[in-house]
Design brief:
By secondary structure, the protein is an alpha+beta fold. The chain has a single domain (6-154), classed as Gcn5-related N-acetyltransferase (GNAT) (Aminopeptidase, 3-Layer(aba) Sandwich). Helices cover 29% and strands 30% of the residues. It has helices spanning 15-24, 27-34, 45-49, 98-112, 127-136; strands at 6-9, 56-63, 66-75, 82-89, 117-123, 141-145, 148-154. Strands 1-2-3-4-5-7-6 form a 7-stranded mixed beta sheet, with helices on both faces. A hairpin with a 2-residue loop joins strand 2 and strand 3.
């Protein structure tokens, strides 16, 4: 496939694009992203597109004016140097590097903003995402817990704090 996938920060007017993306996700993709068989958008679309671009960030992959993937992080209120990260890619665009592109750009952005470690929950049998984590976050520790890996990883490219 020789189509350019553009990425950009999410915008408040992306709500309708998120709703259309949701309608194109298979039940399996929804389950893998949200760990539940949701039928409707999990939260109000406004919440998905309203980010402060610091503590909460989201990047979208856009093809032909449509959002085909989203990567986001939410920094911990207790420890803003740690962020939970999540990615979802439309079924027809899985396997073409969209998730890798989004996650790579998101981790670079997070590192520039002071995030030092990432967390995520990934279903243990989600081979594509487990492989993506292992490639992009080589220092990640995956701890199994009832069919789900809890991922904890230092953020590649994050500056190392000076020793006291």
């Amino acid at each position: 496939m020789d189509i350019t996938v553009d990425t950009r920060p999410v915008r408040p007017d992306d709500g309708p694009l998120f709703c259309r993306l949701w309608d194109r996700l298979s039940p399996e993709t929804i389950y893998r992203r949200f760990h539940a068989p949701l039928r409707r958008t999990p939260v109000d679309a406004a919440r998905l597109v309203e980010v402060d671009h610091d503590l909460r960030e989201a990047l979208v992959a856009v093809v032909g004016g449509e959002v085909v993937g989203v990567a986001r992080y939410d920094r911990s209120p207790d420890d803003p140097a740690t962020a939970d990260v999540a990615v979802v890619v439309e079924d027809g665009w899985q396997g073409f590097g969209v998730g890798r592109q989004l996650l790579g750009e998101l981790t670079e952005l997070a590192a520039r903003r002071g995030v030092r470690s990432l967390t995520a929950d990934v279903q243990a049998d989600n081979d594509r995402v487990v492989g993506l984590v292992r490639r992009l976050l080589p220092g990640a520790v995956l701890t199994p817990d009832h069919g789900v890996y809890t991922v904890q990883s230092p953020l590649p490219g994050a500056p190392v704090p000076a020793a006291a």
